[in-house]
Amino acid sequence: RWVRPGSSVLELGAATGYFTEHLHTQGCTVDIVEVDAAAAAEAGRFARRMVVADLDADAWIREIGGARYDTIICADVIEHLRDGEALLARLRPLLADDGELLLPVPNVAHSALIARLLDERFEYGGEGLLDPTHLKLYTWRSLAAALDRAGYAIRAWDATTVAPFETEFRVRSESLDPALRVALARRPHAFVYQWLVRAVAGRDAGIVAPPAVEAGEDLPVRL
Fold first, then answer.
1. Within 13 Å and on the Cβ side, how many CA atoms surround 217?
2. What are phi and psi of 176, to 5 degrees?
3. What gap in Å lies between CA 39 and CA 59, rounded to an integer?
4. For residues 182-208, b (16+ Cβ closer than 10 Å) or e, as one string?
5. Residue 59: exposed, middle, or buried by beta-carbon count in 10 A (0-12, 13-18, 19+)?
6. In the chain, fewer beta carbons within 10 Å around the N or the C end?
């Protein structure tokens, strides 16, 4: 909903193009950058221009050819890079005057992960918050700070939520100490699994915090 139909879009990390196809059906003109050549070939069916490149480098920018975009989508990308902040800075000149950067990032401050840490558990593996290909971990504060340093002003936050037992950690709230369970559930962003931020080039007077995100939890019951 943050992408206007008919927009010019740069999509980074397009994978096989499941979102590229959606943008194409919305009348968007899409250029993509993807590190995997086979995946890029699939996504390229729905794109104007396809570039196979490592986003930790900057050679791909020359291949874009000086284009500027209404929207740049960097979905679940910067956590996989050695220097995601450097990428954010490189993207800023590619935005049109009223262009927007859309940036979804996993939230390492999810209450399920905090509960695991309190049990002294922190194991990478599988897909999700602790995907072993994640080189950087973000909370909303560290993400907002990275955007600020890279020259962006945040215009909106959104989030996806997942209850602790529904995460890959399968944390059962009823197994926690009651006081801890209450404390974790009362956090304003307790069940935020992924942050989504809309930003523009510029500076804010201060870091814009996301609002509290309400999310209920269904406790599993064995009958």
1. 25
2. -85, 155
3. 19
4. eebbeeebbbbbbbbbbbbbeeeeeeb
5. exposed
6. C
Which residues in the chain come in under a pLDDT of 70? Answer: 216-223
Strand partners, 160: 194
**In the prediction, which pLDDT does 205 show?**
72
Q: Looking at residue 65, what is its pLDDT?
A: 86
pLDDT for 9 equals 98
Contact 94, 151 (CB under 8 A): no
Evaluate if pTM is beyond 0.85: yes
Q: Which amino acid is at 194?
A: Q
For 24, 142, 145, 205, the CA distances from 86, given in Å and listed in that order, are: 28, 14, 13, 22
